[in-house]
Each structure stands twice: as structure tokens, then as C-alpha cells.
Write a structure and sequence with these properties.
Two copies of one chain form a homodimer.
Chain A (H helix, E strand, L loop, with lengths): L1 E6 L3 H12 L3 E7 L10 E2 L10 E4 L6 H10 L3 E4 L7 H14 L3 E3 L8 H12 L2 E8 L2 E2 L1 H8 L4 E10 L5 E9 L5 H10 L7 E6 L10 E12 L2 E13 H16 L5 E3 L14 H8 L1
Parallel strand pairs in A: 1-2, 1-4, 2-3, 4-5, 5-6, 6-14, 10-11
Antiparallel strand pairs in A: 7-12, 8-9, 9-10, 12-13
């Protein structure tokens, strides 16, 4: 049995908990949260209290993840997270790789669906068609990372950021905000559009009475690569999905918690992990079923 | 540079050669074939003459592959192959795993598209949706195994068996035959429909003037899984491709030749290999591009 902790108990933390209850090889020992919850699991207020677990699944906002991961790895506790700031992943991995190696534990970062399972598909598509272009089209769906980033902006009471695919990997961001009393919409709107998460995309900010009435956690992706195998062009490969976002992210985190216990010390992204390591079961049986 | 040999020079061997010429890190040193070819590469008549290569890519018929792989691994030469007899893969892997470990080299077996890249997708889908059903729908495309089985039936001059997906992993077989003089179509048609390869599938046999005029190496697959992440059902994931079959198989074999040089001694299927290992380039750069 793998002894695990969940750090942070929002949407993702809850989905991780659900996925863990369905897994046969992972036992939840602690939840680290400042909330008062009755979930039948011992709660800890702070990661400094965490001990006696093999792996901690970090379900905190992305910007807090590198610091939390480094603290836990320094205590010899392996970590997995769904850190999703694409441009920083390679650097964060290098930083955590050094800490993990020094303290003889392992980490898998960016283990959600994008970055995450989509990254694995992109790597596989590139192995199949080394030359060509891959387009990643997200949505339509609520972006958790973008929504959290909006909510962190002063003056915002509640928010929802929708990702709308417009083709060729180009996206529109539709941001719905509920303002706090006295907040100025134009100031808030500008702050959102200048945030790192939004600055490169067509972004529309709209004020609404109730964000809650708009919420649906469905999401999707369409990955498409047209390219060349050897010298033969027009090879076409695509990957589609339509999913409940926190449920899939939670499941991939739990599958990654299983995988991280099988790795040598270091920090990895999902494309550096043998796919079989994410699965529960006997190697030969899995090969018989899946290969 | 990885020094490589190609063993067997049919459709697949030729496609491997093409893909190798496009790769920057793999150099073709020998082709092992009994054919007389002018392809600008030293030819060897037999695998017993093979030496000074890091990896041999086996492009012989599947039934010959386990024996050839065992011989080369016993000489310390790593191998990759696209062995495709699904029911035997797990056992062949165990046999070759022992040989590879004893002689400190590595093998990747079943490295084509199915088994192969499709297997990786099935494993990934299972990590995302541990409960559910995956359907693998092949085609439309030419089935080599079925075509060979038809050609073995008396009265048949040439044949082509097409695989047509009818959904839920069920397939129709469309068999085109050119008869020898004096052969009776009804007798031949009955023999095909009663053959082990066809008896379980909806099979249509048609007589044509020229099988050669129908041949096209295009193929495809539609993998579909509907299942449960955590406790949330109706999660839908699919993978589609439309490809030139030998070109893709050749490319995956070359990508696998690169990957095999990065593995510890042993024999692996593609689901046991980190996807990044199939790719050419610097780890951090690949993470920046793909994750």
C-alpha cells in the first residue's frame, strides 16, 4: 500500500480523494488544509506537520506548488502536482530535480491533462511523425488555472474563465466576473487582460450577477498532428476528449502518485515516465491486456 | 551516433531505411538480406555475420522474429521489432528479457502501431479512466495476416483482404480474389469464409480481374474509451489516425531503435518506455516543446 497525503482540498483535492477511494493500492493518511472538514481523514493545518507518507499530492494553486514541493521533497516526501504554467515547467523541474535527488525521493510535476496526458500524446505523435505541426485545441470549457488566476486579482468576488477553441491551436478566453462592492470593472478587466495567463490570447471580460449560475466543469481537447513518417507525408493523427475536468485531473494525479513511487530519485514530467507505471496491476497481465 | 543494422528488406525494411536517412542520430551500417540490392549500404547474407552495431531493427515476418532477436541479443546486440502476434507478446517478452539481461543489452518488441503506439494510447487512456471499455476499430485498410491466409487457399492466384470497421471493435472483412484458371469461385469463397482467420467475422468475398489494381498501403485506426475517472462516468477519450502503414511502422521502429539504446538491460514493450526516449533532442528542450 502507498501511504498518501492530499495538500489542499478544493475541487482538485476533493477529486483526488474520490479517485483514491476507488484505487486499491493507495491509502489516504492525511489531508493538509486550513479548512474545517468532516471527511473521515485526519487533517493537518500545515505541510510542516506532514510525516509518515510516501507521497503528497499537491492540489494547491499552481503558483504555490514549486515552494510546497521543494519543502516536502527536502523532507524526503515524494510529490506529484498538476502545475500548469507551461513556460516554467522545464525550469521548475530542474530545481525540484536537484532537491529530490539530494533527499532521495521523486516528484512528477505537471501531471494533469494539459500539461499531462496531452503532453504524452504530443510526444507519442512526434515519435510517429517526427516532422509536422501539432495543434492543441482546448475546450470549450472552464480553465481552472485561468479561473484561479482571475480570482487572485483584487476586486473580484467570483470568476469563471472559459476557453473557446478557434482552431489551429488558437483560443479565445471568455472571462465572467462578479465584482466586490466598490471595485472598478475597467481596472479589474485591464488587470486580467495583462495577467501572464491572458496576455497572449484574445480575452473578453464580462461582468455578471452570478458566476455560480454559469459553472460547468466539463472540458475537452482536440490534438491534431499532420506530418511525415520517414519520407511519407500526409500522416494524420488526432486525439479527442470530452471530460469532467476535476475528475480527470484528480484521477491522473492519483495514477501519478502510483507512478512516482516506482521512479528513481529525481523530478519528472509525464513524458519521462513509462506509461505502464501509472497503472495498477501486474506487469505481464497489463501487457496481455493493453499491448 | 547510434550504429544500426536492418534485418530483412521488404516493405518494412525499406521504410525503416527511409526513416533512418531522415534521422540525425542513427547511422545504417549493414542490411542483412539474401536479396541482391544496390542501396549504398554493405549487405550481409546472415545475422551470424553481424557485428559492430548498437542495435538491429528486425523487419522479418513476425513468426521468425523471436528466434532472430534471441540470437542477436545473445551476441550483445540490442534489437527492436514490430512482432504483432498479440496473444504471444507477453511470453516472448519474458523469454527475450532473460537473454537481454544475461548479455547486457536491451530489446523493444511489438514496436509498430498496433501493437505499438496504439498500446501506449490504450495504457494512457486506462491511467485516465481506470474503469471502462476501450474499443479498437481498425481500418479501412489492408490486413497482411488475412491476405496471407487467403493466398494459401488452393485456386487463388492473388488476393487482398481489407479490414472495414463496423464499430465497437467489430470488423467486416472484404476479400478480393483473382482465381487461377479452372478454379471454382463458390468453392474458394466457402473455403475463405470457413478459415480460422475469417470464421468469426462478417466476410464478403469478391472475384476481380486484377488484385494489383486495388492495392493501397493506407490504413487507419479509431480507438475509443468511455469510462470513469475517480467516481465520475461518461468520460470520453478517442484516438484516430489515417496513415501509410509501412511508413508509420518504419518510423516507429527507428524511434524505438533510438529508445532502446537508453534502456537498462531487458526486454520491453512500448508501454514500458518513457515516451521522451523515442525522441531525438535535448531533454529540457523537448520538455519545453511538448509538455
Amino acid at each position: 500500500m502507498i501511504n498518501a497525503a492530499i495538500v489542499g482540498y478544493g475541487n482538485i483535492g476533493k477529486a483526488v480523494h474520490e479517485a483514491m477511494l476507488e484505487s486499491k493500492d493507495i491509502r489516504l493518511k492525511y489531508v493538509v488544509t486550513s479548512k474545517n472538514l468532516s471527511i473521515g481523514v485526519p487533517l493537518l493545518k500545515d505541510i510542516s506537520e506532514l510525516k509518515d507518507v510516501d507521497v503528497a499530492i499537491l492540489c494547491s494553486p499552481s503558483r504555490a506548488v514549486p515552494g510546497i514541493a521543494a519543502s516536502l521533497l527536502a523532507k524526503g516526501i515524494s510529490t506529484v502536482d498538476s502545475y500548469d504554467i507551461h513556460t516554467n515547467i522545464a525550469d521548475v523541474r530542474l530545481q525540484l530535480d536537484a532537491v529530490a535527488k539530494e533527499h532521495r525521493c521523486a516528484a512528477i510535476i505537471a501531471a494533469g491533462w494539459d500539461p499531462g496526458s496531452d503532453s504524452v500524446v504530443r510526444a507519442l505523435m512526434t515519435a510517429m511523425l517526427p516532422k509536422g505541426i501539432t495543434y492543441t485545441n482546448f475546450g470549450p470549457g472552464m480553465s481552472m488555472g485561468h479561473t484561479v488566476a482571475v480570482k487572485a486579482i483584487p476586486g473580484i468576488k467570483d470568476a469563471l474563465s472559459m476557453t473557446i477553441p478557434t482552431g489551429s491551436g488558437v483560443h479565445r478566453r471568455m472571462v465572467y466576473v462578479e465584482l466586490e462592492e466598490g471595485a472598478d470593472f475597467n481596472t479589474v478587466s485591464k488587470a486580467i487582460r495583462e495577467d501572464d495567463y491572458f496576455v497572449h490570447d484574445e480575452t473578453h471580460v464580462m461582468q455578471v450577477e452570478s458566476v455560480d449560475k454559469l459553472k460547468d466543469v466539463g472540458h475537452g481537447v482536440h490534438l491534431f498532428r499532420k506530418g511525415v513518417s520517414g519520407v511519407t507525408g500526409n500522416q494524420r493523427v488526432e486525439f479527442n476528449m470530452s471530460i469532467n475536468n476535476p475528475a480527470l485531473t484528480g484521477q491522473i494525479l492519483v495514477s501519478s502518485a502510483r507512478a512516482v513511487t516506482k521512479q528513481k530519485p529525481g523530478c519528472y514530467t509525464m513524458i519521462q515516465i513509462p506509461p505502464i507505471d501509472f497503472l495498477y496491476g501486474d506487469t505481464d497481465q497489463l501487457i496481455r491486456e493493453l499491448v
